[in-house]
Amino acid sequence: MADQTVEGSPGPIDKVTDIGRDIGEYIRQQRNNAKISLRQLSRLAGVSNPYLSQIERGVRKPSAEILQQIAKGLRISAEALYVQAGILDVPTGGPVPDAIRADTGLTERQKQVLLDVYESFRRESTAAGNTDDPSDPPPPRAEPTAERPADIAGEE
Questions:
Q1: Residue 94 to residue 156: CA distance in whole angstroms
Q2: Mean per-residue pLDDT over the chain, rounded
Q3: Distance CA 130, CA 41 (A)
Q4: pTM for this one?
Q5: How confident is the model at residue 6 (pLDDT cuts 50, 70, 90)?
Q6: Diameter over CA atoms, the chain
Q7: Which of 12, 71, 120, 141: disulfide with 78, CB 3.0–4.6 Å?
Q8: Domain 11-90 fold
Q9: For the chain, what are the domain ranges?
């Protein structure tokens, strides 16, 4: 049975075109944020200038390999481009990863580094058997003593 669409609603071909346009706009935005020209990105990514231009304009939909090369040229995570292109689902997270991803003051590269560090701490904590409830209050601070002056005890 052929795909049927209601008049005015996008069909499968339109959806692919939208994905191509979305990823192209995203790449252009990241390139502009990085303050590099189309030619510079073309050289850095090893993708021809005309092809990269077609991707940015939504005329071509890049493969995962091309997205990886572009991500390398932009110095952002390939995962970010894969999610934008619809190749990967949006990663699950929680309040901390969601806040990092939502921060418009960070570049994609900075977000990825923060997420990597956060996840490594989570894995380390889990491996050590630390299952503290994050809503538990922090342990009490050490009080200053004669052997432990205020600056060492964490007091100012």
A1: 34
A2: 77
A3: 44
A4: 0.51
A5: very low
A6: 84
A7: 71
A8: 434 Repressor (Amino-terminal Domain) (1.10.260)
A9: 11-90, 91-129
Look-up: residue for tokens 């390398």?
Answer: 72
User: DSSP code of 94?
Assistant: -
Tokens representing 21 are: 């346009």
104: its two tokens: 């418009």
Please answer whether residues 57 and 24 qualify as being in contact, where contact means their C-beta atoms are separated by less than 8 angstroms: yes
More confident residue, 101 or 47: 47
Quick check: 55 and 31 in contact, CB under 8 A?
no
Q: Do you know the residue count of the chain?
A: 156
Residue for token pair 């970010």: 80
CA distances from 1 to 4, 7, 34 (A): 9, 18, 47
Inter-axis angle of helices 108-127 and 95-102, nearest 10: 170
Among 129, 77, 127, CA closest to 101: 77
Nearest of 28, 8, 34, 12 to residue 108 by alpha carbon? 34
Residue 55: count of CB within 10 angstroms of its CB? 22
Geometric angle at alpha carbon 98, from 95 and 104, rounded to 5°: 130
Q: Kindly state the tokens that stand for 76.
A: 């952002």
Dihedral sign, Cα of residue 113, residue 118, residue 121, residue 127: negative
* Closest C-alpha among 31, 126, 112 to residue 70: 31
